[in-house]
Amino acid sequence: MSSPSHLSLILDLTPVPWDALSHSTPPLRLKDFLAQALVFINAHLALRNENSVSVFGALPGRSMILYPPAGSTQVEADENTFHVFGQVDEGFMRSVEQEVEDLQEVEEDVPPALVGALTKSLCYINRLSNPPPPSNPSEAPPPPPHSRILLFSVSPDASVAYIPFMNCIFSAQKLKVAIDVCKLDESEVIFLHQACHLTGGAFVPITQREALLQYLSMCFLSETETRKTLAVPTLDKVDFRAACFCHKEIVDIGYVCSVCLSIFCQPVLECSTCRTKFSPDTLLRFGNMNLNGHAHTHSNGTVTA
Amino acid sequence: MPPRRDADFNISDDSEPEDDELDEDYNASRTIRTKGKGKGKGKELGAYAWEASYKRSWDTVQEDEAGSLQAAVQDLVARSKRRRCACSWGDAPIRRTIIRHMMFLVDLSTAMMDRDMRPSRFDLTLSYAREFVSEWFDQNPLGQMGVVGMRNGVGERIGDMSGNPQDVLKCFLDKTLLEPAGEPSLQNSIEMARASMNHLPTHSSREILIIFGSLTTVDPGNLLDTVDACVRDQIRISIVALSAEMKVCRDMCERTGGVFGVALNEGHYKDLLFELVPPPADKSPVSRLAAQAGEGQSELMQMGFPTRLPATAPPSLCVCHSRLRSEGYICPRCNSKVCDVPTDCDICGLMIVSSPHLARSYHHLFPAPAYKAVLELDGKEASACHACSLPFPTTARAPLQTEEGMSPHGRYRCPKCKHDFDAECDLFVHDVLHVCPGCG
Ligand SMILES: [Zn+2]
Ligand SMILES: [Zn+2]
Ligand SMILES: [Zn+2]
Ligand SMILES: [Zn+2]
Ligand SMILES: [Zn+2]
Ligand SMILES: [Zn+2]
């Protein structure tokens, strides 16, 4: 018999794009979205008695756990299923409302703390997959659940956190956790593409928002094992561009320090990471390319943005 | 737990233990003993390194109220994990050589047929070598490795320097081609390895890793001349010996800035080998990179980050083999399609790498800040771990069990974001994640 599965949801709750979404056609208000997400969560819990769920939120500049409530002991999944439904519904809705209410004073242009939410989710999953030994040694410990992460994205990639974000992807790979991304708006995300590609998750842009629940249950409800036999949409193209260390800009041709592999968008005299000074010959070699390379990145940037 | 390697070093040196860490251990163990049993043997300790790390585990174990050893055992496990990691977590990012070139020299002499390690030295070496190669390429994505066998008094080229893990793994797959025979020759093999690293670009490290089972070496000339040449070429030699220490081997490693270790058992063998996986910290005096940084000789490389086409894309011809295929990578400069990365674009010559390959090594450059153990509570702390949201234990452990780097409350605090984490998450953050959940 297969082991139970754990689903970790990460919600991008940044107010500005949610406001835009609720005024777009067709509108998707946060409240409606949460209602559909809840149905999806309940469907996941109902699939199997031992299934469990955790929800993390990312707000501008901070991230928090929304469910199970912080400080509580591990969720007991073996209770009456309907009871669990009730717990999730109440606990989850209450904490989202709480967090959104607290939000008013926060500045608007801070990117959401996706990395914070991802790291917390990974730490939580790590605890689930390495449970403390049972107090009674004669009992066989319950099998650790298969975990996966589903990220709802409404804002463009914040390239500011390129390195921490990549570290999260590699940790997810190590834990054998797939990262699925459900993209609710049209903004460009490069690193989320890479996350899905590297962890074997699905990337699904929602083109018809009124059918959100349909997308959720068709694409994200099946666990990674089952997906081998299903036709879950996979990525079309994967863009392997990276963010430069100097301006956090996304580049397709970069200059890389041979000592520490830091990426720069244009030739530099000294590596800002490891303080290596580069030989003048190298710089001369890129001298004429400098203009070309720059024009190239720029034209590319304007086309894709 | 195998004895620590520093300990073997000192056995043969017959010198005073100089290592700070040993002194700390020794002091800690002494206080525990005098406090715990009051035997007052403190003054006799410390002459030898192996006495310093000796500690009676039953002295430190305490039953909880219910008379169970559960908590105490978990605590011991956590402590040993923490001690293992504490030495590798630094505050400041160290500069490391990330583009590595390694020649892997494997002893294939009859000494490898010895069965003191199960199933035999030879079989064990092959299986460890395979694991080592995969792990090494995982952590050194732009590295290259070649394999040389030592048997019948000569060095035998088994695999050329390659950046493809599959090519290197292939060298260790067919056992029958590697059948041990005759005597090994250190000099011949090292000379062969040295020759194949002569042409390397200046920005890469040059390393030789030797797995040595024999106690003799059959050389055509003076081995020390070869070592001199390696020092000149700034080649770092590391040796994992399977039998016993040989003076010439230890000297060789010390002079070239490498690591020397003698494997005591199967587990220790693996530990020694896998310590060589992470890029070496760039501290040794012979480091070519440190020297170069001063002279301004390091290079900046231009690299392109491609777009990957899926298997469902319309097929097109690749520029490398002119084959009709769907999958491939698009060169960002000239838009031609190549089959695999990393490679140089056949049309415009741009080096094409996938950026996640580079990113794999960034945690060496920007490690998460080391957490400090919280020794005293002021009543204002969060009740749950900031990362996994599990509650902290409410009762502190007995003071007897506190030790350097361990928190009696099971709390570890990030110096940057001032959030508290439990021991499990502390380990996970620094071992795997490399991002602080509070700062991220
Ligand atoms: Zn830049
Ligand atoms: Zn650098
Ligand atoms: Zn091809
Ligand atoms: Zn090209
Ligand atoms: Zn924790
Ligand atoms: Zn922190």
TrEMBL record, chain A:
Gene Ontology cellular component list: transcription factor TFIIH core complex; transcription factor TFIIH holo complex
InterPro entries xrefs: TFIIH_Tfb4/GTF2H3, vWFA_dom_sf
Main location: nucleus
UniProt GO molecular function: zinc ion binding
Keywords: DNA damage, DNA repair, Metal-binding, Nucleus, Transcription, Transcription regulation, Zinc, Zinc-finger
Subcellular location as annotated: Nucleus
Pfam families per UniProt: Tfb4 (PF03850)
GO biological process: nucleotide-excision repair; regulation of DNA-templated transcription
Gene3D superfamilies: von Willebrand factor, type A domain
Similarity comment: Belongs to the TFB4 family.
Subunit structure comment from the entry: Component of the 7-subunit TFIIH core complex composed of XPB/SSL2, XPD/RAD3, SSL1, TFB1, TFB2, TFB4 and TFB5, which is active in NER. The core complex associates with the 3-subunit CTD-kinase module TFIIK composed of CCL1, KIN28 and TFB3 to form the 10-subunit holoenzyme (holo-TFIIH) active in transcription.
PANTHER family, alphabetized: GENERAL TRANSCRIPTION FACTOR IIH SUBUNIT 3, TRANSCRIPTION INITIATION FACTOR IIH TFIIH , POLYPEPTIDE 3-RELATED
Function in brief: Component of the general transcription and DNA repair factor IIH (TFIIH) core complex, which is involved in general and transcription-coupled nucleotide excision repair (NER) of damaged DNA and, when complexed to TFIIK, in RNA transcription by RNA polymerase II. In NER, TFIIH acts by opening DNA around the lesion to allow the excision of the damaged oligonucleotide and its replacement by a new DNA fragment. In transcription, TFIIH has an essential role in transcription initiation.
UniProt name for this protein: General transcription and DNA repair factor IIH subunit TFB4
Species of provenance: Dacryopinax primogenitus (strain DJM 731)
TrEMBL record, chain B:
Keywords: DNA damage, DNA repair, Metal-binding, Nucleus, Transcription, Transcription regulation, Zinc, Zinc-finger
Annotated region described as Disordered, given as residue ranges: 1-42
InterPro entries: C1-like_sf, Ssl1-like, TFIIH_C1-like_dom, TFIIH_SSL1/p44, VWF_A, vWFA_dom_sf, Znf_C2H2_type, Znf_RING/FYVE/PHD
Domain C2H2-type stretches: 414-434
Pfam family, one: Ssl1
PROSITE patterns to which the protein is assigned, alphabetical: ZINC_FINGER_C2H2_1
Zinc finger (C4-type): 331-348
UniProt GO BP: DNA-templated transcription; nucleotide-excision repair; regulation of transcription by RNA polymerase II
Species of the source: Dacryopinax primogenitus (strain DJM 731)
Subcellular location as annotated: Nucleus
UniProt biased composition (Acidic residues): 11-26
Any Gene Ontology CC annotation: transcription factor TFIIH core complex
Family assignment from sequence similarity: Belongs to the GTF2H2 family.
Single Gene Ontology MF annotation: zinc ion binding
Claim: GTP-binding is one of the keywords in the record: no
TM spans (from-to): none
Superkingdom per UniProt: Eukaryota
Record's protein name: General transcription and DNA repair factor IIH
DNA repair as UniProt keyword: yes
Described purpose of this protein according to its UniProt entry: Component of the general transcription and DNA repair factor IIH (TFIIH) core complex, which is involved in general and transcription-coupled nucleotide excision repair (NER) of damaged DNA and, when complexed to TFIIK, in RNA transcription by RNA polymerase II.
